[in-house]
Amino acid sequence: MDHQEVVIVTGGSMGIGRAIADRFAKDGAAVVIADVAGAETAAAEIMATGAKAIGMTCDISDPASCEAMATAAVKAFGRIDTLVNNAGLYSTLKLTEFSKITPEEWQKVLNVNVMGQALVTAAVLPTMQAQGAGAIVNMSSGTPFKGVPYLLHYVASKGAINAMTKALAKEIGASGIRVNGVAPGFTMSDGVKANPHQIEKLQEISLKSRVIARDQLPEDVVGAVVFLASNEAAFMTGQTLVVDGGAYFH
Length: 250
Fold this sequence. Notes:
Layout: E1 6-10, H1 15-26, E2 30-35, H2 39-47, E3 53-57, H3 63-77, E4 82-85, H4 103-131, E5 134-139, H5 143-146, H6 152-172, E6 177-184, H7 190-193, H8 196-209, H9 219-229, E7 240-243
Parallel strand pairs: 1-2, 1-4, 2-3, 4-5, 5-6, 6-7
């Protein structure tokens, strides 16, 4: 690559997103942190290491906010090489029986987890198409592969992401843009740690189902994301890699 890689990470101020942003910065990329809160602080911390970064407050469910973020990225760094669609609702969701999940709760989750990824992708796509190259990595989840109960709205939203990853890869592949996904297992992220109800009900179940019987950490997800964004994965598109310690096998 004859230019500095430019990477957008949504939900990049904490948890898995922050671990991903830190790794790209360490590897020499210019990083755009896009998040509803904490983006500027995260970017400042990354810049303190000597890397290039900007932070943009961005609501991924708002088309105008997504467009403004993409415009700022191009203005700051001149291009967009990789989009990591990491932002989404999960850790604040309470385990609820299917029949008791309200329509409003369904809509909220789908607006962020599905429409949010679609809107951010739509905002960066013209730049990637003009470049004739780009990599999109969609953050999915192991839940739709395993059929996890009591989070039907979340599981459905991530199942939609898996389908979108395949379909978009087919649609825009001729433009030189690859689209892949990463599906983590239950991860001890900052958001999960801040919501003990998740840990109490899901951690033990997750550990029992894994071949690698330890907690999954944000850093465990990073390598797959970096790989899929790199030229090492130049002949891969439309794929979703499950990174869950062996809880699910294709």
